[in-house]
Amino acid sequence: MNIQYVLWLICLCYVINPCYDQQVLADIQNYFNDHTETGSYRDTEQWLDYPNNLADYPGVIIGQDCSQCQQLFNEKWQYRKLTYEILCSKQDMLAEMVYCLALFSHDLNKTISLEKFKKGAQGFHYSIDQVVEWANAVTNNPRHFFKIAFEKMFFDLLQKDKVIIKKNGFFEPADQILHVLGVSSGTKRTIEFNLNHERIHIFWDQNSAFREYYIEKWNRLSSEEKQESIQALKGYNTENELLMIEEWTVRQNESVSIMELSKKWK
Questions:
Q1: What confidence score (pLDDT) does residue 173 get?
Q2: 3-state SS of 234-262?
Q3: Which 3 state secondary structure label does DSSP give 88?
Q4: DSSP assignment letter at 42
Q5: Residue 103: helix, strand or coil by DSSP?
Q6: CA proximity to 180, closest of 166, 209, 159
Q7: Nearest CA-CA partner of 204 in 179, 184, 233
Q8: How far, in Å, CA of 161 to CA of 8, rounded?
Q9: What are the strands of the beta sheet with 48-49, ordered from one edge?
Q10: Which domain holds residue 242?
Q11: Dihedral (C-alpha) 137, 11, 115, 228: value to the nearest 10 degrees?
Q12: Under 8 Å between Cβ of 105 and 82
C-alpha cells in the first residue's frame, strides 16, 4: 500500500468532513506504518465472470467457484436495477477492493488494519454519491496510484460498466445506478445470507417508512440497550449514531428475505 497516498486520503477526509479531529490526524502516520501491507496490482481479468444471460441486471460475478452466484445475481428484488452487485468468491479479494473506500467513508474503525479487515469483511454497500466522492478524491491526487491488490480492479469495473463516468475532469453517477454492493461468503455466513444483509441496507436507504420506524424504535431503547447494541458493532465507527442505527436495524431483519421485507413494507 502507498502509505503517503493513504495519509493524503485521510487528510482530505478531514477537510471535507471534520469528524477526523487533530488527534486522529496525529496518529495516522504511525497507524499506517503499523497496520498496512505493501502490494502490487495483479492481473485480475482471470477472475471476472460476467453472466452472459443477465444483461438486464448491473454487476459482476468474480471467481469461478460459486455455484449459486448466477441464481442469486438474477433475483428480481425490488431495487435490483438500481443496484450494481458484485458477487465475489474470495473474501480477502472483496476486502482489498473496498478497504480504502471504507476508511474514506468513515465507516471503519481506524484501528482495523487491512489484514484484520480481510479476515472479517464479507460484504459492503455504498450509495453512488459516496462512491463518486471517493473516486474524485482518489483520481484528483496527482501522486496517487493504486497499490492494494484488487482495489484497482474495483475502480476499473465501476468505469467499465458505466457505474461512474468522467466529465470535465470529474466523476459523476451514470445512468440509473444508485447503490453499489459487494458480498462473499465466510466460514459461518453464506454468500446468500450476506447478499440479503447488504440488500437490506439498500432497503433502509430507499424505504423511508421502514427507516423511520426503526429510528423511532431505537430511540425508545434504554441507554443500556443502546450501548449493548453498539458494543456488538465495535468494528464500525461507533461515533456515527445513524450508522449504528442502520446496522442495528439490518441485524434485526437479516433473517427475513428481501422479498418478504419488500412485501411487508410496500
A1: 95
A2: CCECCCCHHHHHHHHHHHHHCCCCHHHHH
A3: strand
A4: P
A5: helix
A6: 159
A7: 179
A8: 28
A9: 48-49, 59-62, 83-88, 179-183, 123-127
A10: 3-264
A11: -110
A12: no
* Angstrom distances, CA of residue 114 to CA of 34, 107, 144, 259: 11, 14, 19, 34
Cβ count within 10 A of residue 48: 14
* Residues in CB range of 119: below 8 A, 6 or more apart: none
Helices (H), 58-175: 69-73, 91-104, 114-120, 128-139, 151-160
Number of Cβ atoms within 10 Å of the Cβ of 182 = 27
Pairing of strands 59-62, 48-49: antiparallel
Count of domains for the chain? 1
Note the pLDDT of residue 76.
92
Closest CA to 173 of 83, 87, 106, 242: 83
Cell of 130: 459516496
8 A C-beta contact, residue 98 and residue 124 = yes
Q: How far apart are the first and last CA of the chain?
A: 45
Backbone φ/ψ region at 151: left (φ over 0), alpha (ψ -120 to 50), beta: alpha
Q: Bigger pLDDT: 215 or 63? A: 215
CA distance 63 to 125: 20
Handedness of CA 31, 95, 254, 57 (dihedral sign): positive
What is 151-212 written as a DSSP string?
A: HHHHHHHHHHTTSEEEETTEEEE-TT--EEEEE---SSS-HHHHHHHHHHHHHHHH-HHHHH
* C-beta separation of 178 from 94 below 8 A: no
pLDDT tens column, 13-57: 433 333 233 333 333 333 333 433 433 334 445 555 544 444 578
